[in-house]
User: Which sequence fits this backbone?
């Protein structure tokens, strides 16, 4: 111990000394002086922390200064790729180790591959910027760039579910169902099943693919992950409505109100159910609740306006259309339905103007151009309608209603061959959709009028295989048989329709159970939702509430029931100029197809 505690100036000491042993091993360990750290200078942009040449020179000088012949333990760096003229033959041990190493996978990161070596995690603000940029890219149909950006977001933030949802929706828009499903499944695994948004989007995807049972399971998983996730309850309820399970749909929607509180979408869906069941007072109450939850909800105002339009309450419908436009000035559905309403009421010029405004605000929407083409065909020329149909088909080549409507117009014009080609184009896009069923029915009428009765029968039968509940198709087929003198066959077809149709019985008793959820003031609600009384006076009172609004003006019964003009003072032209910077008098339909403008880059690199 004394030798170990001796001065460090003496480099010789004895290792494992024992007086019983006659031999003694002494080693000399040279102490190499450390090189002085280089000083930073303003002239050099980068400095080396260790000078390899100076270190080698010091080591050589130290070895030269020690002429002792005793073995010296020298600390050296391992030689790296030292060239030699004649390489020594490898030993059998080295050969064996080399063969063994070939059989073992070496997990070493590649310096050139950035993806294999995780870097430092960027700030969270970069995720928000990247998601917004991906949204803009997807909106402009630049799916490849959006997918690359979202995959990078998933790589850096695998625990965040927003990137999975955005990527899955982008893939779904490209009809890449399998890839979208894989992304949602990966997202559920990465978030440990605690993100309800991924479950809900996955359920919607499975519903679109026709996997109803799987969609129910995924909606259930979304509600388990978060029972306050309103989109899951609403989506599940809509799924059951499509399947005809009205009572179960109401139960799910009521649960959504119970766990999540008032929600515009649930109120709107319930109101549409009431309107379908001819319980219009209850529907108006629920529509009013929806608009109170969100006065900026264009969908609620629009659905309410459609109900009043069906009841021929034209003034109320027009004012509700105006409220929908004020809630969402660029909403394509509002401009479209309002334009069709005005054209149906005989205001062709106003309907044309509303459709053109909607097209100017949504230049990539083919539905507006389709309706405008049909309007021009009815009130203008077929050539202008053809140009509008051509433009609409260029905007979206897979939009079936455009091809079907175009084929119908050509049939009306006597161009039978062209109409057949357009119908074939519509069916080539999707032969199992509701639009395909309508296309087959229209094609059957074409063949019937041209005397091809066997082809017409086959087309009617194919249409009913897709949608067996179509009253128009059944009656058209029965009319064909009756015109051919087959009265017995025509009666069989009518009987077959009534035998196979699905009759949905909607019970009104659910409303009393829902009252406890909507509002605790039961007496007040029972007076509004009185299931036994549906008098004309209550209907007029409800309409007065709609029309008077905040103005407090009185409305007489005659104006409520059958007024064609709006007295609210809403000026469409002034609204477009003030809110949208758009002059309706100078609108022209864009007939030339142009690709979407490139996305402006605000940052060179987000991640």
Assistant:
């Amino acid at each position: 111990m004394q030798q170990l505690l001796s001065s460090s100036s003496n480099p010789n000491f004895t290792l494992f000394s024992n007086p019983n042993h006659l031999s003694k091993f002494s080693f000399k360990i040279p102490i190499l002086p450390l090189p002085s750290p280089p000083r930073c200078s303003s002239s050099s942009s980068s400095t080396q922390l260790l000078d390899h040449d100076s270190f080698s020179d010091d080591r050589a000088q130290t070895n030269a200064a020690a002429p002792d012949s005793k073995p010296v333990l020298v600390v050296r760096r391992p030689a790296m790729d030292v060239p030699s003229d004649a390489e020594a033959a490898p030993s059998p041990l080295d050969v064996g180790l080399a063969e063994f190493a070939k059989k073992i996978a070496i997990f070493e990161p590649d310096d050139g591959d950035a993806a294999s070596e995780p870097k430092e995690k960027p700030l969270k603000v970069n995720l928000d910027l990247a998601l917004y940029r991906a949204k803009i890219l997807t909106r402009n149909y630049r799916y490849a760039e959006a997918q690359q950006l979202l995959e990078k977001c998933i790589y850096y933030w695998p625990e965040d579910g927003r990137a999975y949802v955005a990527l899955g929706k982008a893939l779904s828009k490209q009809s890449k169902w399998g890839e979208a499903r894989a992304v949602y499944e990966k997202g559920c695994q990465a978030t440990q099943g605690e993100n309800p948004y991924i479950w809900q989007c996955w359920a919607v995807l499975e519903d679109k693919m026709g996997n109803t049972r799987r969609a129910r399971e995924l909606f259930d998983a979304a509600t388990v992950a978060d029972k306050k996730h309103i989109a899951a309850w609403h989506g599940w309820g809509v799924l059951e409505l499509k399947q005809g399970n009205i009572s179960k749909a109401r139960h799910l929607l009521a649960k959504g109100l119970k766990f999540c509180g008032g929600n515009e979408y649930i109120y709107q869906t319930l109101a549409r159910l009431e309107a379908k069941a001819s319980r219009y007072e209850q529907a108006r109450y629920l529509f009013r609740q929806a608009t109170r939850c969100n006065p900026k909800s264009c969908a609620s105002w629009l659905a309410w306006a459609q109900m009043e339009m069906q009841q021929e309450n034209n003034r109320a419908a027009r004012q509700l259309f105006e409220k929908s436009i004020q809630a969402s000035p660029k909403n394509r559905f509002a401009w479209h339905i309002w334009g069709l309403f005005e054209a149906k009421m005989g205001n062709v010029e106003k309907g044309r103007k509303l459709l053109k405004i909607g097209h100017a605000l949504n230049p990539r929407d083919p539905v507006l151009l389709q309706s405008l083409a049909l309007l021009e065909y009815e009130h203008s020329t077929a050539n202008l309608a053809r140009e509008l149909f051509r433009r609409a088909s260029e905007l979206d080549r897979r939009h079936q209603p455009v091809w079907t409507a175009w084929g119908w117009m050509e049939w009306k014009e006597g161009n039978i061959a062209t109409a057949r080609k357009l119908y074939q184009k519509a069916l080539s896009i999707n032969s199992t959709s509701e639009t395909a069923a309508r296309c087959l029915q229209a094609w059957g009428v074409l063949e019937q009028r041209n005397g091809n009765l066997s082809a017409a029968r086959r087309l009617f039968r194919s249409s009913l295989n897709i949608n067996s509940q179509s009253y128009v198709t059944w009656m058209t087929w029965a009319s064909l048989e009756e015109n051919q003198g087959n009265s017995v066959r025509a009666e069989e077809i009518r009987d077959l329709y009534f035998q196979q149709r699905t009759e949905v019985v909607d019970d009104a008793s659910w409303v009393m159970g829902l009252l406890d959820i909507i509002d605790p003031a039961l007496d007040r609600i029972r007076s509004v939702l009185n299931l036994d009384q549906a008098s004309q006076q209550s209907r007029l009172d409800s309409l007065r509430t709609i029309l008077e609004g905040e103005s407090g003006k009185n409305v007489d019964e005659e104006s409520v029931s059958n007024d064609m003009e709006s007295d609210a003072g809403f000026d469409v032209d002034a609204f477009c100029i003030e809110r949208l910077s758009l002059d309706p008098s100078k609108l022209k339909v864009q007939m030339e197809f142009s690709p979407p403008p490139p996305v402006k880059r605000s940052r060179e690199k987000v991640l």
User: Anything to note?
Assistant: The chain has a mean pLDDT of 77.
